[in-house]
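Worked Example 4.2. Consider the chain below.
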Amino acid sequence: MKPSVESDQDLINRREAIRRVSALLGGMAFIGGSGLLAAAETPRPAAGAAVGEFSLQDIAFLDEIAETILPATKTPGAKAAKTGAFMALMVTDGYSPVQQKVFRDGMRKLDDACKKANGQSFMTASSPQRLAVLTVLDREQKRVMDGREAAQRKRKGLAPLPGVVAVVDEENAAGTEQDTERRPAHYFRMMKELALLGYFTSEIGCKQAMRYVEAPGRFDACVPYTAGDPAWAQHA
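Applying the procedure from the previous section yields the following structure tokens:
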């Protein structure tokens, strides 16, 4: 992530990459919205440098979280793509102060959850222990976010979504619709989104986890596909 002179086309490419990764992940709207697009125009920090209020230790911590979500297999994982520094940069430049606080508090909560479950910090825990903790947190964030969506649909008089229990937890039981919509997302939802975004817009994600052809050739309506083949990376 060394600094470089960036052309207008580079900036357009990075913004477009966010939109295309959103499409790759099912059209999900990333937390931070337009703020992430603005952050995409910020020059990347020098390798090994702190980012905003994120220390080198914080970035190493985020690297390990991202690596647990996207571990190295036949291709390099999230840590090799320096996803932790990307996450720190996007939080610093793309999130509101309230969202930043939720994210940073979430880092502490995640570490506390690991200590409670395993008797040791996330950084010293084994890979299976880390994965178990993040699996629990992923289920928790889905329950919380589904509860918020259920609360919003109920207030609007809409039917609940299939497979989503229309039971609003205590966090969403009180307050107006505006309160629910303004409440920051669950911290692990933020972490997971940024890990995916950082990895799949990196050179490693585009060229090794996926197949990348910079200059597309003729249009093929149907391309043979073998189960297990990597997806094609969009030309940025």
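The radius of gyration is 19 Å. Confidence is low (pLDDT under 50) at residues 1-12, 166-177. Compare this with Example 4.1 before moving on.
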